[in-house]
Amino acid sequence: MKKIIPALLVLALISSCKNEPKPEPIIVKYPVTAKVDTVDTYFGTEVKDPYRWLEDDRSPETEAWVKEQNKTTFGYLEHIPFRTDLKNRLEKLWNYEKLGSPFKKGDYTYFYKNDGLQNQYVVYRTKGDAAAEVFLDPNTFSEDGTTSLAGLSFTKDGSLAAYLISEGGSDWRKAIILNAETKEVVEDTLIDIKFSGLSWKGKEGFYYSSYDKPKGSELSAKTDQHKVYYHKLGTSQKDDKLIFGGTPSEKHRYIGAYVTEDNKYLLISASVSTSGNKLFIKDLEDPNGLLIPLVEDTDSDNYVIDNVGSKLYIETNRNAPNKKIVTVDAKNPEAKNWVDFIPETENVLSADFGGGYFFADYMVDAVSKIFQYDYNGKLIREVNLPGLGTASGFGGEKEDKEFYFSFTNYNTPGSTYKYDVELGTYELYWKPEIDFNPADYTSEQVFYASKDGTKIPMIITYKKGTELNGKNPTILYAYGGFNVSLTPSFSIGNAVWMEQGGIYAVPNLRGGGEYGKKWHDAGIKTKKQNVFDDFIAAAEYLVENKYTSKEYLAIRGGSNGGLLVGATMTQRPDLMQVALPAVGVMDMLRYHTFTAGAGWAYDYGTAEDNDEMFQYLKGYSPVQNVKTGTAYPATLVTTGDHDDRVVPAHSFKFAAELQEKQEGTNPTLIRIETNAGHGAGTPVSKTIEQYADIFGFTLYNMGYTELPNKSVLKDFKE
């Protein structure tokens, strides 16, 4: 492969902040990235793709490129004088006991716990008044902590359990079945499971989903025909029965199967994209029962929450953009027979059940409100939550008299509460002991106008007493897609950032789900620019109101949020000092050719749809919009070499374009985590290193030669 790009010698002279000495210049010699003559033609328009070869994740050339890029990046990061201090502080603050909400299965109560710096949470259980014992320790799955627990499912009586593991962060899973009482493995490991839960049918077996293993790289090759299988205990996986997805008429990209709590019905959800699903039902008590359609199109999102006999309770946004709950008889389940149970309101609904009640969780400007209903649809009460934030976990078994929920917000570490179902009262069950005082920080919600006048909410969190003088280091974080809602939650990494005087701002952009389907649809396909405009307007609001200034602003996002950062920094490189795109979708002309990427077309459209859609995607696709001679912000691209959700080639190609075309002295680096995927299951040790590098890079490129708040480091100096 002919190498025709000369090595670039960049002197990273970063502008200093007032009264601060300039950071030491770091000389960056970027690796040579070869260019090849690759051209695609879309509707008569030619598009060059010189870094196409980086899409081959199995080639020696790509492997060598990754090693050289990491050598360059870590060589730069090692020169940041306070990088080790950040890592030490992160480790200290991270080192506290963390406890998940307990849940009952059979005679045991189970819970997840991390002692502090364990790479993976451990599953414990208790029985009666006996001391807790380890049920499952994922830290023993691999020496480096990169094999994680990716799912755990029990039979109704709690006697059997099946769990999923992910190796190196991959979406491909393996399943292991245990005798829950003895913790002994009862049969051979199942392999090649993907995008799947495990749903038991009694104690006989369970349903799961997967794709045929693709030809070529299993990390990047296209997978688009999902299939549901039934595994009967005591049989070989090769004999598992194909339930749905094996014929052309049943071809869908995402198919899930789940069994109702009483084991009476099998439900199958089938989707061609990440929005909208068909829904089918089968009576498991009828040996000759067939799959009957409840919903035969993909125009809405539908889920059977629960049933009482043949009466089904369905959460849906069909003719209800903010969602509602309806009921229908399973014998005649078509949508025309649905009856409203909990009607749609002006706020977005998500629902669960437990203890003989339904719990409706409404988002009100991205903050939780919980209402309890009985099975006749009567409102029992609004649950008075501990504060403004995010409540989760309202649900359990029907016979439960109590269950546990958690509460958190941006400056409050998650605590667990025990809820009395009948009385509607709760008590604090567990509160973390952490070296961070929430009372020292404040969160405020503001509403600002986007380019077209739409009001966008944003929560801004920072230390009390912070002077709004335009000189505060600020991270603006967002997502803006796939109906995903960003609700307040505590992050140890963000706590360290705010401890250093940093501001953390999160706007709820269009494309998300905070205001229902209409809000989502306002940021898809040829309306995607709304999302970028919302993000740009958030940055401008922070600057205009002197929370920060261009010199102290960093933008950050991951996955679809990585696309957000990539598009924003290429459209408005003058707006921020630092850009931090993580595992981003950067090549919008080719995203649909990798793994399950074609399923994202509801949000994005594809370059193959028509000329209009191609031109629109080409107009904002980060890889295609890096311009020669433009001064881009200091950029640290991050990805994982085993990411089979958003393949790392997106980030590779974007980094190569930036390194070739960057004008000026700002560094454009890529940090590639090895033996890591899209993010889920990442070991704590790796996560801490990532935060230290990201925050170190950010502050250094804002002009800091030492940490703004060194007092928190006194423990390391003594």
Automatic annotation (TrEMBL):
Peptidase S9 prolyl oligopeptidase catalytic domain location: 488-703
Name by which UniProt lists this protein: prolyl oligopeptidase
Describe the family membership recorded for this protein in Swiss-Prot or TrEMBL: Belongs to the peptidase S9A family.
InterPro entries listed in its UniProt record: AB_hydrolase_fold (IPR029058), Pept_S9_AS (IPR002471), Pept_S9A_N (IPR023302), Peptidase_S9_cat (IPR001375), Peptidase_S9A (IPR002470), Prolyl_oligopep/macrocyclase (IPR051167)
Q: In the Enzyme Commission scheme, what number(s) does this protein have?
A: 3.4.21.26
Compartments annotated for it: namely:
Periplasm
Which GO BP terms sit in this record? proteolysis
One CC-aspect GO term: periplasmic space
What role does it play? Cleaves peptide bonds on the C-terminal side of prolyl residues within peptides that are up to approximately 30 amino acids long. Has an absolute requirement for an X-Pro bond in the trans configuration immediately preceding the Pro-Y scissible bond.
Task: Give me the reactions it catalyses.
Answer: Hydrolysis of Pro-|-Xaa >> Ala-|-Xaa in oligopeptides
